[in-house]
Write a structure and sequence with these properties.
Layout: E1 9-12, E2 15-18, E3 39-40, E4 43-44, H1 54-67, E5 72-75, H2 85-96, E6 108-113, H3 117-121, E7 135-139, H4 145-152, H5 162-176, E8 179-185, H6 192-201, E9 205-209
Parallel strand pairs: 2-5, 5-6, 6-7, 7-8, 8-9
Antiparallel strand pairs: 1-2, 3-4
Helix pairs in contact: 1-2
Bound molecules: iron/sulfur cluster.
The site of iron/sulfur cluster has 10 residues, from loops.
């Protein structure tokens, strides 16, 4: 446990990142939150159960913008943002409605996700993101369902059909959101040609990224 102030929002490159929750329906083998003791480049992302309200997130975003503008608002912390779907959508709505000024209403809003939200919420949540989320990066990682389960380590009850659900999420996102990436982390003995082919078949742009042990981007 650290005494360091909790970061609800944090800067990375030219984006403002939002740490909405520490809850996650997967325990990916490449997740660095435990190895890095909930720290990310000097930010303490351990919310210790105190998940922020949208009003708190927006107030912090305004202050950050006043200190220095950012080019992107990104839902990505040590947890799956869509576990707080309504809070996430509320933050985006407040921005789009001009209630986060001086943050521009048309700022690029990105979601980094494991793609299980439709399974978690039991409905098509992608259509609810239309007009709010500009870019979604879905952690698909492989074209093989058995390998997906081994890499993502989904919790019950999302293990059985998780891979198919994630594929469906990507298809839906590619159909109704401006930009959809399917991502894969290097170093998992994945057939990247098959991964790229599946991503393209689903309508997404494939993106292979390095493991974060090297301190690379997210
Ligand atoms: S989805 Fe993200 S937070 Fe959840 S286990 Fe995987 S890397 Fe970690």
């Amino acid at each position: 446990m650290t005494d360091k102030k909790i970061s609800v929002v944090y800067r990375y490159k030219d984006g403002l990142y939002v740490n909405l929750t520490n809850r996650c329906p997967t325990a990916c083998v490449f997740c660095i939150k435990n190895a890095w003791a909930m720290d990310y480049h000097g930010n303490n992302l351990n919310l210790a159960g105190a998940e922020p309200a949208p009003s708190e997130v927006i107030s912090l975003a305004k202050a950050e913008w006043a200190a220095a503008p950012f080019s992107e608002f990104v839902f990505c912390g040590y947890g799956e943002p869509t576990m707080r779907l309504e809070a996430m959508l509320s933050c985006a709505r407040l921005i789009r409605n001009g209630r986060a000024e001086p943050v521009p209403a048309n700022i690029r809003i990105r979601l980094n996700t494991n793609g299980l939200a439709c399974a978690v919420w039991g409905r098509d949540v992608v259509s609810e993101m239309k007009g709010l989320i500009d870019s979604v990066h879905v952690s698909l990682n492989t074209a093989d369902p058995v390998q997906w389960a081994a890499i993502m380590r989904p919790m019950e009850p999302w293990a059985a059909n998780g891979f198919e659900t994630v594929k469906d999420f990507i298809r839906r996102a590619a159909n109704c959101l401006p930009e959809t990436f399917a991502t894969a982390v290097e170093g998992n003995e994945v057939d990247m040609d098959k991964f790229r082919a599946l991503a393209a078949e689903l309508g997404a742009t494939p993106r292979v990224r390095p493991r974060l042990e090297a301190g690379e981007e997210r």
